[in-house]
Design brief:
Blueprint lengths: L12 E9 L3 E8 L7 E7 L5 H18 L10 E7 L3 E7 L6 H7 L2 H4 L2 H19 L5 E2 L8 E7 L2 E6 L6 E2 L9
Antiparallel strand pairs: 1-2, 2-3, 3-5, 4-5, 6-9, 7-8
Length: about 180
């Protein structure tokens, strides 16, 4: 794997509760030995349970996400702390853990958190716009290609102050249609 400086040993991770997931990936709360920073999550993409013809595409998407995230540094974009791989089983991305989950989950579980407060709506809109402006400031611009409420994570780092971060860069490309980081 090309991101050796990001390699995390599986034995250094203590896996916790499942926080969410999709068709091929689950997100788990984790503890990482030696990490004293913010709470972490592991986006664990299961490559062992997919058909061989799907495996290459799935691994390509994970690698694209790693190539993209390792080049990004913005307060409104999820931070990649490391990559863990157990060949034949899964690849995982160690990232920020969103204390409130995704915007989709917040809207499904307690919509009034967002809908009753114009200031929260404006802060989320500003955070998302800031993340997109940052992506588009690159030459060539980076395009997310999967902007939706499930890919906007919500953080509460201060009591009562919610912030949004853009996540899930598996479909990202640059403006010319090539995978981000491929050039």
């Amino acid at each position: 794997f090309e991101a050796d400086e990001l390699k995390v040993e599986w034995s250094h991770i203590t896996e916790g509760a499942v926080l969410g997931g999709g068709a091929f990936a689950q997100v788990h709360a984790i503890d990482l030995r030696g990490h004293a920073g913010p709470a972490l999550a592991l986006k664990k993409t299961d490559v062992g349970q997919v058909l061989p013809n799907q495996r290459a595409s799935l691994l390509s998407s994970v690698r694209r996400e790693v190539r993209t995230l390792r080049r990004l540094n913005h307060e409104c974009v999820i931070t990649l702390y490391g990559v863990v791989s157990v060949p034949g089983r899964f690849m995982g991305l160690v990232m920020d853990r969103a204390d409130r989950g995704s915007l989709r989950e917040v809207l499904d579980d307690d919509p009034s958190v967002v809908t009753s407060e114009l200031s929260v709506q404006m802060r989320f809109a500003a955070d998302i716009a800031s993340a997109l402006a940052y992506l588009h400031s690159f030459s060539p611009p980076k395009l997310h290609h999967d902007l939706k409420s499930a890919n906007v994570l919500i953080f509460e780092r201060e009591p009562g102050v919610l912030r949004a971060k853009l996540s899930d860069f598996g479909l990202s490309k640059d403006l010319h249609g090539t995978s981000v980081g491929a050039t």
